[in-house]
Design goal:
The complex is a heterodimer of chains A (331) and B (326). Chain A is of the alpha/beta class and 331 residues long. Chain A has two domains: 10-96 and 177-330, Rossmann fold (3-Layer(aba) Sandwich); 110-176, no CATH class. Helix content of chain A is 31%, strand content 24%. Chain A contains eleven helices and twelve strands. Chain A has helices at 59-66, 87-93, 114-124, 131-144, 161-173, 191-208, 219-225, 243-248, 253-260, 267-272, 326-330, and strands at residues 10-26, 29-44, 48-52, 74-79, 82-83, 97-100, 179-183, 211-215, 228-233, 236-242, 313-316, 319-321. The longest helix of chain A has 18 residues, at 191-208. Chain A is globular and about 65 Å long. Chain B has a domain at 4-79 and 208-258 and 268-324: Rossmann fold (3-Layer(aba) Sandwich), CATH 3.40.50. With 326 residues, chain B is α/β, with parallel strands linked by helices. In chain B, a hairpin with a 2-residue loop joins strand 4 (61-70) and strand 5 (73-74). In chain B, the strands form two sheets. In chain B, strands 6-7-8-3-9-10-12-11 form an eight-stranded mixed sheet, with helices on both faces. Chain B is built from twelve helices and twelve strands. Classes of the chains: A alpha/beta (331), B alpha/beta (326). Chain A binds chain B through residues 1-3, 54-55, 160, 162-163, 190-196, 198-199, 202, 217, 219-221, 223-224, 244, 257-258, 260-271, 273, 275, 277-278, 281, and chain B through 41-42, 155, 157-158, 185-191, 193-194, 212-219, 238-239, 242-243, 252-254, 256-260, 262, 264, 266-271, 273-274, 289.
Chain lengths: 331, 326
């Protein structure tokens, strides 16, 4: 997948996106929780951008804010050159951009049949003329994701985890989108089922020319499916590069630690691996440290790291890093 | 004599829908100071095997037959008094979710001291000292201050460290870790796994590591058991399992995960869906999903066969190989 960079047009441009949630921290007092703090990137048509990071880093919030499931605090999302601003823009955008959720158990309504779950986006966006057309579309979608059309009248609880995730994917495909945010779509599935779903994402992309934002924490899976990978830490983006590049030659100290911690399914490699130990815990996003958010745990931190936020800049072609000491520590 | 000998263990849950054979003829030995990994998908019986050893099965679960010997002492049918002495003292267990396995209404110190007071002759002061020593062992900063705090003041990784400290406080011979890092982030997971390995080297206990993550197994385990539908498919040293898999299920699992030198080729998934334990097929339980299934696989379960002195598997393909001389 990731051997050559796909050179399509920019499909989604994210510019200085911020998402703050106000948290009550006292009587009549609230503090903004900076879940996503000033991230910018571009997703090109037909590519898969992987978004990784640990829990609480803001990757899910970023995905949801891009789809305007949350109203962004600041920044803009540009789809095919057009900024999404008014409610009408948002509604139109949602017929082109959809989402697959992490938990196939709680993201499907237990009181709806599979046909109705898949058909709901069609109802919402008035995308059929007759009931017959609606039925045809639903059966087509089920066929696309490898579900037996006889199962259309069944309820979600009658399916296994892998099959439920297929229902979730069929629902995301219903409006014929060209961009899908996949939020940890395989992490709730068994290992033997994960590969089936990953391959299906690959095949659907080839058939329908889809663009994915693939959010996950399993680095080996993300690297397999993605063309490029972005790494987030505490609401900020710290590195963005080609998938193989980032895996084989991480530049940011946090990415280095993250990749060294991946449990590799190969005993000889795993035992020879030198892990970069991180001290301490991830700081609370309510109380983020000044300067570089990673300086409290960074083995390379210098006084300047706690003073100013390093810019997210292009250090090589197509490769962005937010670290004051990128050149020094990688030479 | 092995430290722990499990022989032909059968554990069932008697539900309204019928008998669910969660563990179906599991046998293995665990030597002192070794790390044994048990891998399998949900419903493969890996956790129930552990709970059977500890005899902490929920409601309708029951050990139907088989034998579990700890240091030569039979535990099946030994009675609650014997088990009370075994649990937490000779065999300890840590669970997957560190958020729910600690009591939110007691301090960390009280919870750590409980096991020590119960199983050893130490008085309160000595137990306190021991608990502080254990927290230091698992790299918790400022242990004296932490002793007086409640679980909600700890992060997930820290809570799992407390669970490990608690499990190790009475110097058990065996530590059972049931998916101890599944709920944690990778960098935190790496720290916990390293810690477990270090402590294991220091105290020399044996660990049974239950996980679905083949990466964790590769990093930590000396020996590996692969389970499917309540039975053991294959067991052997980690090297044998990863580099010379001899059961079609193990082969399928290894093919279906992305590797280190990912070349972008398609993953090869295992087809079909996990087995329904209420309707077990007559032959090999994996046969309905196996691409190489033969007629005999549908008819009869394959017995465990030795591949070499470090490796055994229960797959008819090995018989075919032997007969055809492949």
């Amino acid at each position: 997948m990731s051997t050559e960079l796909k050179s399509g047009q920019p499909l989604i441009e994210v510019r200085h996106l911020k998402q703050y949630f106000n948290i009550n921290t006292g009587f009549f007092k609230s503090t903004p929780l900076k879940a996503v703090d000033d991230i910018s990137f571009t997703i090109r048509e037909g590519e898969t951008l992987g978004l990784v990071g640990e829990s609480g880093c803001g990757k899910t919030t970023a995905g949801r804010t891009i789809l305007h499931l949350y109203q962004p605090t600041a920044g803009e999302i540009i789809y095919r050159g057009k900024s999404i601003k008014t409610p009408k823009d948002v509604e139109e955008f949602r017929t082109k951009a959809t989402m697959v959720f992490q938990d196939p158990y709680s993201s499907l309504d237990p009181r709806m049949t599979v046909a109705d779950i898949i058909g709901e986006p069609l109802d919402v966006h008035h995308m059929y003329k007759s009931q017959e057309e609606r039925r045809q579309k639903i059966l087509e979608l089920m066929d696309h994701v490898g579900l037996n059309s006889e199962h259309a009248a069944r309820y979600a609880h009658e399916f296994s985890g892998g099959q439920r995730q297929r229902v979730g994917i069929a629902r995301a495909l219903a409006v014929d989108p060209d961009f899908i945010v996949c939020d940890e779509p395989v992490s709730a599935l068994d290992v033997s089922i994960q590969a089936q779903v990953i391959n299906m994402f690959d095949e659907l992309q080839d058939q329908m020319g889809l663009t994915y934002l693939f959010i996950a924490h399993d680095l080996l899976v993300v690297r397999h499916i993605s063309d490029r990978i972005a790494v987030m830490y505490l609401g900020r983006m710290v590195e963005l590069a080609d998938a193989d590049e980032i895996y084989n030659r991480p530049l940011h100290p946090y990415t280095k630690a993250l990749i060294s911690a991946v449990p590799v399914p190969d005993p000889n490699v795993a035992r020879a691996n030198k892990r970069i130990a991180l001290t301490g815990e991830i700081p609370s996003p309510l109380n983020a440290p000044p300067g570089c958010p990673f300086h409290t745990r960074c083995p390379y931190a210098k006084p300047m790291c706690s003073e100013s936020m390093p810019p997210f800049k292009e250090v090589e072609k197509g490769r962005f890093v937010a670290c004051h000491r990128t050149e020094e520590i990688n030479s | 004599m092995a430290l722990l000998e499990v022989k032909d263990l059968h554990t069932s849950f008697f539900t309204d829908a019928g008998e669910v054979r969660a563990v179906n003829g599991v046998s293995f030995n665990l030597e002192r100071g070794k790390i044994l990994g048990i891998v399998g998908e949900s419903g493969s019986g890996k956790s129930v095997t552990a709970y059977s050893i500890m005899q902490i099965l929920a409601g309708t679960g029951k050990i139907v037959s088989g034998s579990i010997k700890l240091d030569g002492q039979e535990l099946v049918g030994a009675g609650e008094n014997v088990m009370k002495d075994v649990r937490g003292n000779k065999i300890s267990i840590i669970f997957q979710d560190p958020m729910t396995s600690l009591n939110p209404t007691y301090t960390i110190g009280q919870q750590l001291m409980e096991a020590i007071l119960l199983h050893t002759d130490r008085n309160k002061q000595q137990s306190w000292d021991r608990a502080v020593e254990m927290l230091r062992l698992v790299n918790v900063n400022e242990p004296e201050k932490r002793m007086k705090q409640y679980p909600h003041e700890f992060s997930g990784g820290m809570r799992q460290r407390v669970m490990i400290a608690m499990a190790l406080a009475c110097e058990p011979d065996i530590l059972i870790a049931d998916e101890p890092t599944t709920a944690l982030d990778v960098t935190i997971q790496a720290g916990i796994l390293e810690l477990m390995k270090d402590i294991q080297k220091q105290i020399g206990m044996a660990i049974i590591m239950i996980t679905h993550d083949l990466g964790v197994v590769a990093q930590l385990c000396d020996e590996v058991i692969v389970m499917y539908a309540g039975g053991i498919c294959e067991q052997g040293t980690a090297e044998e399992i990863f580099y010379n898999p001899c059961h079609e299920y193990t082969k399928g699992l290894l093919r279906s995960i992305p590797t280190v030198d990912d070349s972008g080729e398609k993953l090869q998934p295992i087809s079909g869906t996990p087995i329904d334990l209420l309707n077990m097929p007559k032959g090999c339980p994996f046969a309905p999903r196996c691409d190489n299934a033969m007629k005999i696989c549908m008819r009869a379960r394959c017995e465990r066969m030795e591949i070499n002195d470090k490796h055994a598997a229960a797959c008819w393909m090995n018989v075919r190989k032997a007969v055809k001389g492949e």
